[in-house]
Design brief:
With about 425 residues, this protein is of the alpha/beta class. The protein is built from 16 helices and 14 strands. The protein has two domains: about 160 residues, Aspartate Aminotransferase, domain 1; about 250 residues, 3-Layer(aba) Sandwich (Aspartate Aminotransferase, domain 2), CATH 3.40.640. The structure holds pyridoxal-5'-phosphate. Pyridoxal-5'-phosphate binds next to helix 5.
Length: about 425
């Protein structure tokens, strides 16, 4: 409580990112001081089984030994050079090999920067203004993309456009997720002015929502027909649902892909990439400008590189899928037994428990979840020693460090937390 008081004195709301304030779940936030494997530890030394996973960063669990060692070694050689270092090339090669639709990549410092830059590139290449996005999808806090966004914007019920000029917001067309008819109408009407459509190919920021394959296929077809680019925002799903992301699972090729989270191995890294003929329009080869003092930072590149090497070596997706399924089904049997309205959506290594019996397939249905019940559940679970994201509109993340025993203990704690609702 003392540190929180101090934090609130010097930081807005005591935090550097809004959801960390735990406002929507109505309890005081915790401070974390250590994270290892599947566990995190707060200031008072309390241990939590962690499903926040640093918002999707920690695919291999927290602080994997191999990555930490390489980071230490590299740090001794210098912290930032400001010119190109060999690890940028190594990590870029791994990304290009992992994701078939990406010929070339540009590293930036966050997911927000990646989506912002991808949109600039799309607008620059196409000479058009409109961007299509989907309700409940979150692509970072860039002006054009904060309109009807999920994640923290959803959590706080913000209009999403405060501080964003109407003229800018008007260039973003917002459509419902998973609604193929709305897609067809919008493209028919505005097709020739659309520069690009951006989508979370598996949504994580309104809670987990699985796309209909038909919806994504139609989006691919319509963007192609009207000469717009399709951007898959794989900041969460990249390297998480398969080595080649959601596009690998669904066998749909976007024109541009944005990455982040897992890619930085715990450091601030984002990336965007795509076909050679699009990427070459970027400076210094082309005329579309985008730059960064710390882009390709050597420590961050080393962390990302050794993370991807380990992911490639382990190929953990089958195991992650099974663990996620086990947890999802376990939770559902607990809630159903007690007659609590509930739906669990999941994909490899990510899941969300919604407090509604209705199928959740878009933002509207996600919003019908009982948020008061969620807040109580979150608090109970926290007391039991399980950390999940402090918002209904987020995904829980399962890492390769989560053991069967972790899952069993989690289900026991979930059962107690549900009993106490
Ligand atoms: C987290 C996220 C972003 C933004 O990344 P930051 O690193 O937080 O800027 C963009 N898109 C998606 C899908 C995300 O989940």
């Amino acid at each position: 409580m003392e540190l929180l008081k101090e934090a609130k004195k010097y930081l807005v709301g005591g935090v550097n990112s809004p959801v960390r304030a735990f406002k929507s779940v109505g309890c005081e936030p915790i401070f974390l001081v250590r994270a290892k494997g599947s566990k995190v530890y707060d200031l008072e030394g309390k241990e939590y089984i962690d499903y926040l996973g640093s918002w999707g960063v920690a695919l291999l669990g927290h602080a994997p030994e191999e990555v930490v060692e390489k980071v230490k070694e590299e740090a001794k050689k210098g912290l930032s050079f400001g010119l190109t270092n060999p690890y940028e090339v190594k990590l870029a090669k791994e990304v290009v090999e992992a994701i078939p639709s990406v010929d070339k990549v540009r590293f930036v410092n966050s997911g927000t920067e990646a989506t912002m830059s991808a949109i600039r590139l799309a607008r620059g290449v196409k000479g058009r203004k409109f961007v299509v996005k989907f309700e409940g999808c979150y692509h970072g806090h860039y002006d054009s993309l904060l309109v009807s966004a999920g994640s923290g914007v959803a959590t706080f019920g913000l209009p999403g456009t405060a501080g964003i000029p109407e003229e800018v917001a008007r260039l973003t067309l917002v459509l419902p997720y998973n609604d193929t008819n709305a897609l067809k109408e919008a493209f028919e009407r505005y097709g020739e002015d659309i520069a690009c459509a951006i989508v979370e190919p598996i949504a994580g920021n309104m809670g987990v929502v699985i796309p209909d394959l038909e919806f994504l296929k139609e989006l691919r077809k319509l963007t192609q027909e009207c000469g717009a680019l399709l951007i898959f925002d794989e900041v969460i799903t990249g390297f998480r649902v398969s080595l080649s992301g959601a596009q690998g699972l669904f066998k749909i090729e976007p024109d541009l892909t944005t990455l982040g989270k897992v890619l930085g191995g715990g450091f601030p890294v984002g990336a965007y990439g795509g076909r050679e003929k699009i990427m070459k329009e970027l400076a210094p080869e082309g005329s579309i400008y985008q730059a960064g003092t710390l882009s390709g930072n050597p420590i961050a590149m080393v962390a990302g590189y050794y993370t991807l090497l380990k992911v490639k070596e382990e190929r953990p997706y089958q195991k992650l899928h099974e663990r996620t399924k086990e947890l999802a089904e376990g939770i559902l049997s607990i809630t159903k037994e007690r007659g609590i309205p509930s739906t669990v959506n999941y994909a490899t290594s990510m899941l969300t428990l919604f407090f509604t019996d209705e199928e959740v397939r878009d933002y509207e249905s996600a919003k019908r979840s009982d948020l008061k019940l969620f807040a109580k559940f979150f608090k109970n679970l926290l007391e039991e020693g399980v950390l999940i994201p402090p918002s209904q509109f987020e995904a829980w993340f399962i890492s390769t460090a989560h053991t069967k025993e972790d899952l069993e203990r989690t289900l026991e704690k979930v059962e107690r937390a549900i009993k106490r609702l």
